[in-house]
């Protein structure tokens, strides 16, 4: 038996973004833009997008640290 789960409505997508990508300080995220651009996305898709977005700063930091290590002859 298959159970069809509807795609999240705009309000649900916004709530997911607010929970998974909270704004920090004065840096307000454009949640309305994210909601508009994710029409047709499943909840799982949105979770994956948020995970990837959260990992980007860490990946940039790791790249910088690796480059610094190379410049010191490690």
Automatic annotation (TrEMBL):
Pfam family, one: AAA_lid_3
Main localisation: cytoplasm
A GO term, aspect molecular function: isomerase activity
Domain AAA ATPase AAA+ lid: 31-68
GO CC terms, sorted: microtubule; spindle pole
Subcellular location: Cytoplasm, Cytoskeleton, Spindle pole
Record-linked InterPro entries: AAA_lid_3, MT-severing_AAA_ATPase, P-loop_NTPase
Keyword Transmembrane helix: no
Keyword set, alphabetical order: ATP-binding, Cytoplasm, Cytoskeleton, Isomerase, Microtubule, Nucleotide-binding
Coiled-coil residue windows: none
Keyword set includes Isomerase: yes
Protein known as: AAA ATPase AAA+ lid domain-containing protein
Organism: Nymphaea colorata (pocket water lily)
């Amino acid at each position: 038996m298959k159970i069809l789960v509807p795609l999240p409505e705009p309000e649900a997508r916004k709530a997911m973004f607010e929970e998974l990508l909270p704004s920090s300080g004065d840096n307000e995220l454009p949640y309305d833009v994210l909601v508009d651009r994710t029409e047709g996305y499943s909840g799982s898709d949105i979770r994956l997008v948020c995970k990837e977005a959260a990992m980007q700063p860490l990946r940039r930091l790791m790249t910088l640290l690796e480059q610094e290590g190379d410049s010191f002859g490690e």
